Amino acid sequence: MRSMLDRLKWPADAGCTAVPYWVFNNQEVYDLEQEKIYNGPTWNFLAADAELPEKGSFKST
Predict the structure, then answer these.
(1) What is the pLDDT of residues 7-59, one digit of tens each?
(2) Are 35 and 3 spatial neighbours (Cβ–Cβ below 8 Å)?
(3) 47 with 58: CB under 8 angstroms?
(4) What are the residue boundaries of the structural domains of the chain, listed by start?
(5) With contact defined as beta carbons under 8 Å apart, do 5 and 32 qualify?
(6) Rounded to 5 degrees, what are φ and ψ at 42?
(7) Is the pLDDT higher at 56 or at 2?
(8) What is d(CA 31, CA 19) in angstroms, rounded to the nearest whole number?
(9) Are 4 and 32 within 8 A, CB to CB?
(10) Is the pTM here over 0.70, yes or no?
(11) Which residue stretches of the chain are H helix?
């Protein structure tokens, strides 16, 4: 069976214009994101502390 990373790759010239729906609610994808993005080897800065003045504040796009 192909690995999750292999299943998430598709050729740029395949005409894909959207992420498949199954990606958004797949536990294996979630676990992989946690490992590779949020617990990876580098920090991912999301906001400066001045942008989140109070406990419970959040930043959105």
Answers:
(1) 777 766 667 777 888 889 999 989 988 888 888 888 878 888 889 989 999 88
(2) no
(3) no
(4) 3-7+20-42
(5) yes
(6) -125, 155
(7) 56
(8) 17
(9) yes
(10) no
(11) 4-8, 27-33
Assigned token pair, 31: 């676990």
In the numeric block, the tokens 């959207």 are attached to 18
Name the residue type at position 35.
E
Q: pLDDT value at position 1?
A: 54
pLDDT score at 47: 86
Rounded distance, CA 10 to CA 27, Å? Answer: 20
4 CB-side CA count, 13 A: 12
| Other Cβ atoms closer than 10 A to 29 | 16
CA 53 to chain centre: 26
